[in-house]
Amino acid sequence: MPMAMSSIFTITLLAWFINIPWTSSANQEAKVFMVLMEDEPVVMMSSLRGSEDIAMYKRRMTQEHDVFLQSVLQEGSYVKLYSYTHLLNGFAIHAKGEEVIDVLRRAGRVSGAWPALGGSTAAGEGVVIGLVDTGINPFHPSFATQTSIGPGRPVFTQGSKFKGTCAAGERFSASACNGKIVGAQYFARAAVAAGEFNTTRDYASPFDADASTAAGNHHIPVIANNFNYGYASGMAPGARIAAYKALYSFGGYMSDVVAAVDQAVEDGVDVLSLSIGPGKVPSGPCAFLNILELELLFATKAGVLVVQAVGNGGPSSSSILSFSPWITSVAASITDRKYNNSLTLGNGQRLLGTGLAPPTFGGVYFPVAAAADVCRKNFTTGLMESCQNADPFIHALARGKLIICMYTFDFESEAASISNVAATAQKIGAAGFILTMDPDIGSEQIKGSTVTLQVPGIILNNMESSTALWEYYNSNTIRSRSGDALFFRARARILDGRRATYAGRAPVVASYSSRGPDVNNAILEAADVLKPNIMAPGSSIWAAWSPNSEGDVYTKGQSFALLSGTSMATPHIAGIAALIKQKHRHWSPAATTSAMMTTADLLDHSGGPILAQHKNRLAPATPFDFGAGSVNPSRAIDPGLVFDAYFKNYLQFLCAVPGVDDMSIRRAVGVGCPAKRKEWCSDLNAASVTVSNLVGSRKVKRRVTNVADADEKYTVTVREPAGVKVRVTPEAFKISVNASRFIRLHLEATQRTNVYTFGEMVLRGSKNHVVRVPIAVYVSSSIGRS
Fold first, then answer.
1. Where does the Inhibitor I9 domain lie (predicted)?
2. Rounded Cα gap, residues 94 and 31, in angstroms
């Protein structure tokens, strides 16, 4: 079958390297350019029959890339890094200077450019989770062996279509892919070409020298600094892991990330977990057509559920970085597990704080000394007070004492760390350390307060405790006329801070978790997409850690670390998605996301509404804080009804986005808009309803499908957003197994709000299924019809 290759239609400049979040590189001369070809990639070619046809088509695409480059660019002026063939038809090259764009434009076949470079052991069985991240440590017990697989050989798991391979390399031997890890590859061509890849620190293999969080094995002891903190299990312990390393110690390049995603989907992963995102959202109406968003759209078209961290830009509104409706965007919560510590003073007073540290020896009281009182006077006050190194200390005076240090602005800027305080205490022979708060710094977030320590230590993370300690210390320290400390009569002991307590309200939306409404982009906000989609635990999560990490001195050599961020919440959702996939093999990504959203919890453990952390307060959480709510795994497996969507529905959504023209869509996805276009983006069959500009009234339609094992009767009720009257038809219906039916909502503005207000539609079934759909509406005017 002849397959003519046609011309380039667009060049996509995806320059500058990515980190978490993606940022700029120091190498401003060299650039990586990504170019899309007009012909369809493999995933769009339904006419291909069998592996031989596919392989031939891939070879032809790659050859055409080479021919085109040779025809327009000088030999030696560029290096081709990748040919993309599965989800996209295009390539990435490394070249120097902006003149490459001009050359490609003069070829007469270029139309545009976008910047950016780049429960049990069986739960989850048969499902493969693809991790696009910093790689994996195959020696960790959470990823322990089952069956050895040779390097470069395809790996098949029971009930899975997965056909990925294992790439051996530095610290990643032939036996690293072991049946738990079923595939491992790394992507660094852009990083190497740009000169960012450093062979002395970056492993040329899938090996990860830092954190690894995935579908870990069941009941693994969490041991850090020789203390057992309990046991860890992945959300889907029976799921398999395929690692696609595209990020390194310096960050990474988007072209490497796109290559990793492309390979993961071609290999046949079921779920794709991205704990990464761009530094900022692309501007303009074509942001949804950004090359990464397109890559993930085609991954969804291939049946792969894409789960992405929403970002750590909270509590500011419109701070999310994961914005497309075909991606499941994850917010982070704090839990009720706390590691508290306390300091008992010689006068019997007990001060509360934090610190994952052992107690002072023998339960006895030790002398207390301020750092400045046991240091030489020829050092600056800040250097002494922050206790960042042992040089200023007079060891004979400091030895055997509890040293009071100060949490200064240096800690906030990461010029100082709590680990350095602990290291200093150990070097000078102190009995431990007490870190007090600077009055000029708020104590809501203490950086590094969850690091595990080998020496006794406590962070008095509130001004009341800090002030009480200083008052006690000053009243019990005898000084000379010049102010020098002569006698240290203050005494104290530190208790054990390594025992978890479970108290307080939870879950609570973490202050750092990025918030909606959608991104800070008027066009994207007008697209009526609710983000985040769902929330999962993300604060103080015990994560598998590589002992080879070159990071924090007190996590180096450890197998677990306590980490926080939306990147920790994301694997929770990926694991829960694997559980759903195990039970419902043929569900679409949208159905899986719908199941998690419509069954999410809106109440915390105390029975009250879930709260959200803001800078200095707690407030009831809204859908812009946590999406549909906090994920409930057990209910998500049996949701009753789902709101399903497929590629054609996302295409209709794109065609309704304001400012996106038909030609742009046709060039980007290979298909034009249908003759009968959707009028509103809000018509996408999502498990939420968002209207960003209600003028007068609007009709919104949703289609539900019964995925339960029996017919069921449902009644529909609505909690109306302020300023909006909502009428739903039908108010009651019966639906058969596997059947679908439409639900229509008529939204009528009753008063102008000029802010988003929130409500929900609730469908209650006769078989005890409860399906909740969040509603977010911005009423611009109560006059007119829309």
1. 57-107
2. 6
